[in-house]
Amino acid sequence: MRSSMPSTSPSEASAGDAPARSRRDSLLAARYRVYQVWRSLLARPLDAADHAILDATLPAAGRALFYSMTRNDQRHSLTVYHALRERGCADGDLLAAALLHDSGKGGGRVPFVVRPLVVLLRAFAPRALDWLARSPRPWFRRPFYNAWRHAEIGAELAARAGLSPRVVTFIRTHHQTNGPAAELHAVDDEV
Ligand SMILES: [Fe+2]
Ligand SMILES: [Fe+2]
User: Fold this and answer.
1) Distance (Å, rounded) from C-alpha 184 to C-alpha 155?
2) Residue 18: other Cβ atoms inside 10 A
3) For 132-145, how does the pLDDT look when each residue is reduced to its tens digit (9 = 90+)?
4) What is the signed CA dihedral for 103, 108, 110, 113, rounded to 10 degrees?
5) What is d(CA 6, CA 3) in angstroms, rounded to the nearest whole number?
6) How far apart are CA 173 and CA 152, in angstroms?
7) What is the secondary structure of 15-72 as a DSSP string?
8) Percent of the chain with pLDDT over 70
9) How large is the average pLDDT for residues 57-73?
10) Distance of CA 48 from the midpoint of ligand 1 (Å)
């Protein structure tokens, strides 16, 4: 699932995008993202080949972090992994980051129902999203806060799980077009 969420605030991100994208394009993009969210209910369970990839790419604590994600986010992460491999990527740290880049959404931190709301608010009411995501408190803000900051949250979780500093950096920067994980970002934006 495309999940480009820059580290800027939602309203800043929208202001930067606005000149390049018409309102119609925004509507179509938002509609597609919402469709992807609902499609995610049908995500295929992991099979033996998927588990073999996980065993070969992540340490035990990294796999536990992977399994903390929803089935759809697990499938999405594997899709990003395969897309990188198809582009010739053989960087083990980048491939590990592909499997964990959205792990900040795991553990119920970004409930399913919040995801289409984030997509729609980002497209049509970025200031409202900015307001909702500015703090983890009170309770109703927390899912939006987590959604907007899942790259940083995932990086902290990966560091605690003992992943290498390079993997942690890739996760933290996976929304940056020209950052250290630019290749991961490009693939994440396509699948
Ligand atoms: Fe992401
Ligand atoms: Fe992603």
Assistant:
1) 15
2) 12
3) 999 999 999 999 99
4) 140
5) 9
6) 8
7) HHHGGGS-HHHHHHHHHHHHHHHHHGGGPPPP-HHHHHHHHHHS-HHHHHHHHTS-HH
8) 85
9) 97
10) 26
Residue 16 pLDDT level (bands cut at 50, 70, 90): very low
Which ligand sits closest to the CA of 151?
1
* Nearest ligand, measured from the Cα of 186: 2
Ligand nearest to the CA of 36: 2
Nearest to 173 by CA among 109, 106, 108, 94: 94
Percentages helix, strand, coil for the chain (3-state, rounded to 5) are 70, 0, 30
HSE toward the beta carbon, residue 30, CA cutoff 13 A: 19
Q: What is the predicted pLDDT for the residue at 4? A: 42
The owner of tokens 């970002």 is 185
Q: Ligand 1 centroid vs 23 CA: distance in angstroms?
A: 23
Contact 163, 100 (CB under 8 A): yes
- Integer Cα distance of 91 and 4 in angstroms: 22
Count other Cβ atoms within 10 Å, centred on residue 67. 13
* Local structure of residue 191 (DSSP, 8 states): -
